[in-house]
Design a protein that fits this description.
- The chain has 212 residues and is an alpha/beta fold.
- Helix content is 46%, strand content 17%.
- The protein is built from 10 helices and 8 strands.
- It has helices spanning 16-29, 37-40, 48-56, 59-75, 87-96, 109-118, 140-151, 165-173, 188-194, 205-210; strands spanning 3-6, 13-14, 82-83, 100-108, 125-131, 158-162, 177-181, 198-200.
- A 6-stranded parallel β-sheet has the order 5-4-1-6-7-8, with helices on both faces. A two-stranded antiparallel ribbon has the order 2-3.
- α1 (16-29) crosses α4, α3 (48-56) packs across α4 and α7 (140-151) packs across α8 (165-173).
- The longest helix has 17 residues, at 59-75.
- It is globular and about 50 Å long.
- It comes from Lysobacter arvi.
- This is HAD hydrolase-like protein.
- Pfam families: HAD_2.
Amino acid sequence: MTTLFFDMDGTLIDSAVGITRCVEHAMVQMGLPVPPHEELRRWIGPALRTSFGPLLNDDAKVEQAVLHYRERFETHGWAEHEVYAGIGETIEALHAAGHRLAVVTAKNEPHARKIVDHLPFGHRFDDVIGATLDGRISHKDQLIAEALRRFELDSDACWMIGDRRMDIEGARHHGMRNIGVLWGFGGEAELREAGALHLATAPNDIPVLLAA
């Protein structure tokens, strides 16, 4: 049985609206100018503290900004997303083929679990591994390490599937096979530069690439 770790934002769901609105909310609350929408989209993928850090350059302010983000996310942002066309069918097909599935995301784990619980195919995931609230585990290599620990697996028994360089770099850190997906927020150039083993142009490419 192969275990497949799926990123969430940009891989399972298009969460641009929820994330960017929550970032905007945090910036307004902190008295910061709100960047253009295209710049805000770059916040999708990295850990929040990674993005707020260089902007605020103060640990206490970073923590306050993260709290403002979470306030809006808990009331509105978690539901502001769309499931990518075809991903549900692919998840069902992979489950039916005997693969074990999990979500590995830089979202904090309570928020990630809430979203997965409301996805029509969410019950197909055996676990949801997300960032700790204190940021102790938040980068993708750390999250993958935590997933391997929970499942008691070696990295050669798993694949990482995601849309950003962090997914690919995290997988490569552990010597793990990986698939970069092109319908998310990273794009082909970013994924190739990160060293993606395979690229999927649509969800139904994933089963084919796993067998390649």
